Known about the structure:
- It is a single chain.
- The protein is mostly helical.
- It has helices at about 20-45, 50-75, 80-105, 110-130, 140-155, 165-180, 185-210, 210-215, 220-225, 230-250, 250-260, 265-270, 275, 280-295, 295-315, 320-340, 345-360, 365-370, 390-400, 430-460, and strands at about 340, 380, 420, 430.
Amino acid sequence: MNPxxxxxxxxxxxxxxxxxxxxxxxxxxxxAFGIWGVLPVYWKQLEFMGATSLVAQxxxxxxxALWPLLLLRRKxxxxxxRVIAWHFLSGALIAGNWLLYVWATLNDRMxxxxxxxxxxxxxxxxxxxxxxxxxxxxxxxxxxxTAFSGVLLQMPSVGHFPWxxxxxxxxxxxxxxxxxxxxxxxxxxxxxxTTVLAPFALAWLFxxxxxxxxxxxxxxxHALLIAGTGLVTAVPLLLVPQMLLAGALVPYKEMNRGxxxxxxxxxxxxxxxxxxxxxxxxxxxxxMLIAQATRNPFELxxxxxxxxxxxTRDIGGELGKDSLESFExxxxxxxxLLASGAENEHEARxxxxxxxxxxxxxxxxxxxxxxxxxxxxxxxxxxxxxxxERIDLLVREAETFRNDYRNEKPRHVFLALEKxxxxxxxxxxxxxxxxxxxxLVILSCGGVAAWVIGKQNRSVK
Length: 461
């Protein structure tokens, strides 16, 4: 497949990792989800076609909408047999997902269809754990359970077993799993998928309709609506990878730079990223990121040992023999922790616990001679089993801004570990700061709600 007749280059069609990826990703998400939000109204205008014919038309017109982009790009698609096979499978999954969603919309089951996409993130997490080895902390599991309980509360509104919702959510997640097996970018991948599905779509349209006018609704308005299915399908699917790129694929330095308005000025001032600025519960968002960065066994032990060292240094003066010995053990324990490795998360947890126990209860020779790196070839540094690299970098850069020697007064920096508090000399840990802010928000909302209800009750009397 080489529409422009040029040589193939690996990874053609991948989206540019520009410094404005974060801002682009935000707008890409708004546009994509905005289009998806009004799609049920669009499908309702085409209910005369039937779900299967509508999906067949959607496949063909999406392919036609993509080819001009491929020709303008003047770069071929690298798609060998293996890649085409993966995209045939992913195309079948997305076509089945389209068919089921359109059928649900045309048969007045839109609530169940919408519920399917609310369920979809939970299938993503399940499949991530099964096939990609992803693990979640207790705090993350609590957040997942809370969100899942919210979805369960919507189940009674369906009125029966939500098989459509479950099928939609699982098929879209499986599409994502299969799609990860291909090296192609968004444009190339969607082009290959629609190309391999187009013969089947044309065959169905040929068999299901006795004439070309009948296949297009026998009127120009209907024909234009049918042709538009290509654009309303292709645009969101091309925008979503840009949205994901902003949070998952762009190198941290570029992603963080793009998240700020007037990038350099905002970063120098320790500004708040645009997405966080528009979140109603931005402090909950910030608190959860800080918790993920610091509330894991490795970071808890590292911070504990670091604070012990700092407290001892702050004492000043000469240390006694026992105090000096303990101080050296703590420093050696911290060095051992940072240089430690393990082959799996269980071993990493046991190793962190052993280092903690040795520092607190062992002798200097035991700490100095403790083996902290296994002999196996699969060993990795201990911190890799607990620390999210992206979030760790976010926090580290925020701390760099907060501790800048040029600061004339304490700075309120997004994702820093401590926050300045008005009328207080000491800074407060960010998690506690966010907790107090959220508590004040909840109490304020409760107070406003009580005032409104009381006012309404008085007016009824």
